[in-house]
Every structure is written in structure tokens, then in C-alpha cells.
Amino acid sequence: MEELIDAHDQAWLDNDPEAVGALFTDEGAFVDLAGGETVGRENIIRYAEGHVELITESRPTGPVESQGNGTFHYPTHLVVAEIRSGTYTGVVAVDVKDGLLARYDLSEVGRQ
């Protein structure tokens, strides 16, 4: 589980949209800071192409929690660079199912 989260964080830090997308299920969902949802691996890759350079730091912050039915929730801390108004920072919800990211939610990130 931790290897998957590490690979996810590294893909963003390496500015590698293909590597980001490869970690999601075909029906995976990415929810951005504004609450917009991007669904599907190929759509997530296209989203990441315009946003990977914004991520400046990412690290696990808490224990993996089982959600049942083979799904796990992993809290991660991100710092996202934002050109006009500083940074966003906070806890991100990363849900994992079947060894891939099922849902990645930035919408809970607090603005700093």
C-alpha cells in the first residue's frame, strides 16, 4: 500500500502525467481543489498534463484505514504551489482499491 502512495507522490513530483494516470483504476476519480471531478484514467492523464508542475511536496501523514470490500483510505499531506496567491496545503483523501488509486480528493485541502 505504501509503495503505491509513494509511486503516486513521485509521479506528481516528477511532473509525469502518464505515471500519474497509470496508478488509477480505469474508472478512477480525481477531485481538484475547486471540487471539480475528473473521472477515468485517460481524463486524469489530460488533467495532470496541465497541473503536475504545481505539486511541490507530498508525504503520508497517517495510518492506512480499511474501508471494507478491499478499499483502503490513506491520508496524505500535499503542498501545491499556486502562482497568484501562495500555496494550498492540507490532507488529501486517497482511496485505494485492487492495488490502484480509486479516488483522489483534493477538495478537502485548506488554503494557507
Structural overview:
- Strands 1, 2, 3, 4, 5, 6, 7 and 8 form an 8-stranded mixed beta sheet that branches.
- It contains 3 helices and 8 strands.
- The radius of gyration is 13 Å and the shape is globular.
- About 20% of the residues are buried.
- The protein has about 110 residues and is of the alpha+beta class.
- A hairpin with a 2-residue loop joins strand 4 (about 65-70) and strand 5 (about 70-80).
- The chain starts with a helix and ends with a strand.
- It has helices at about 1-15, 15-20, 40-50; strands spanning about 25-30, 35-40, 55-60, 65-70, 70-80, 85-95, 100-105, 110.
**Discrete helix count:** 3
Mean pLDDT: 75
Shape label = globular
Distance between the termini: 29 Å
- Range of strand content: over 45%
Compute the CA-based radius of gyration.
Answer: 13 Å
Q: Helix coverage percent of residues? A: 10-25%
What does the oligomeric state look like here? single chain
Sheet with most strands? 8 strands, mixed
Spell out the helices and strands N to C. HHEEHEEEEEE
Structural class: alpha+beta
User: Which regions have little confidence, pLDDT < 50, spanning 5+ residues?
Assistant: none
- Count of beta strands: 8
